[in-house]
Each structure stands twice: as C-alpha cells, then as structure tokens.
Amino acid sequence: MVTRIKIDFVSDVSCPWCAVGLSSIEQALSRIDGEIEAELHFQPFELNPGMPPEGQDTVERLSHKYGITPEQVRHNGEVITARGREVGFTFNMDKRTRTYNTFDAHRLLYWADLEGHQLALKHALLKAYFTDGEDPSDHETLIRLCRESGLNKDRAREILDSKEYSAEVRARERFYTGQGINSVPSIILNDRYLIQGGQSPEAFEQALRQVAETG
Questions:
Q1: How far is Cα 153 from Cα 173, in angstroms, rounded to an integer?
Q2: Using one digit for the tens of pLDDT, what is the confidence trace for 183-193?
Q3: Is the model's pTM score more than 0.90?
Q4: Do residues 96 and 60 lie in contact, with contact meaning Cβ atoms separated by under 8 Å?
Q5: H runs (alpha helix) in the chain
Q6: Among residues 90, 93, 122, 83, which one has the least CA distance to residue 201?
Q7: Per residue in 177-209, is it b (16+ CB within 10 Å) or e — as a string?
C-alpha cells in the first residue's frame, strides 16, 4: 500500500541551500518510490524582500547581511558547491554575481501550482540563477522559463504585467512567517512535522519513513 505525504517546501529561488534541499528530498523520494507518494508544493519565502529592481552585488550583500568577509563568502560558496555536487545540482558561483528580487518568480510559481507545472518551473528557476547566472527578476527570462516548463508564455506575460497573485503570495508568506518560519528551506510534512536546512537524502528518507509510519 502506498502512503501519501503532503510536502510543503518553503523556500526562495535565490537560496542555494534550497536547491540542495530539493535535490536531496527528490533523491530520497526516488529511493522510496512505490512506498511513499509525495504531494509536493512550493511555498513562498523571500530572503531579500526589499531588494530593488537592479539587484545588488552578491558578495557585498552577503557580507553585509551576515557580517562576514568576502573571503568567508567565497569559502561558503565552495562548501555549497561541493554539497550541490553530492546531490547532483550544479552551482556556478562565479556566474551568480548579483542578488535579485524574487517576488515575481513566486507569483509565477503560485500560478504554476494551479496549472500542475510548479516542480518544472522551480527546477528551471534554480538552474537559471545558480547554474546559468540569469536574472530571476527579469520578465523576459521568466516568460522563457515558463514556456520551457510547459506553461503558456502569453498568460505568464499577462500575470507579470499585472498584480495578479500578489495578494495570495503575500498571504502565504505571512502564514509561514507567522508559524515561526524564519529560515529556508523549511520542509513541512503533513502540516505537522518540520525539517529545516539542506539535509542529506538519507535524513529526508528517514523522516519520510517515520511520518509514513506515524501518519
């Protein structure tokens, strides 16, 4: 008998550990395929909600935000790159030169969930930013990624040219921060069990099996 588990993956497309965490949990799910079936939803969280349209130099931003030196920023990038390699995600930190506003990306992810293409778009956004060094706030980039993810590009443009889904995304952000979520990735299983951080596939597999047993 297959057990169904709801997974709410609270994350940002500019969060490298979210890319690691997603790759890890997908590996875990592949190991228990046939035993556990996941209903996966990506929920919005903005690491830099006040980021202006032009973005900011990434090293400058991280140095200021966390009070660390540029050398420490680069070292952390090397650690994340190595973790990504372990779970099959490619980071090209030399291409990730700027940090951008991600609110429009979250609006499109909300829409993509309604259309059944959310996972494909999430993968496309993470790859575009962390692997290819693209701007996840640029509308033409977002429209192209939507099309490549199986979504209607004209509808994507229509959403971006309006405020559609803004209220819904803000409401979800408030809900999760109100639940005490202040760092990502935060993964919630069946609305009850919280796992935080870019855990290993083994850790996710163990957690999923425990939830399947306890309900």
A1: 26
A2: 999 999 999 99
A3: yes
A4: no
A5: 16-31, 58-66, 70-87, 103-115, 118-126, 139-148, 153-160, 166-178, 201-214
A6: 83
A7: eeeebeebbbbbbeeeeebbbbbbbeebbebbb
Let me know: does 40 contact 119? Beta carbons within 8 Å: yes
Whole domain around residue 50: which residue ranges? 3-192
Structure-block tokens of residue 43: 């929920």
Mean pLDDT of 90-95: 97
Give the domain CATH number at 26.
3.40.30.10
214 within domain boundaries:
no
Q: Measure the CA–CA gap between 38 and 5, rounded to whole angstroms.
A: 5
44, two tokens: 């919005």
Cβ density class 140-156: b for 16+ within 10 Å, e for less = ebbbbbbeebebeeeeb
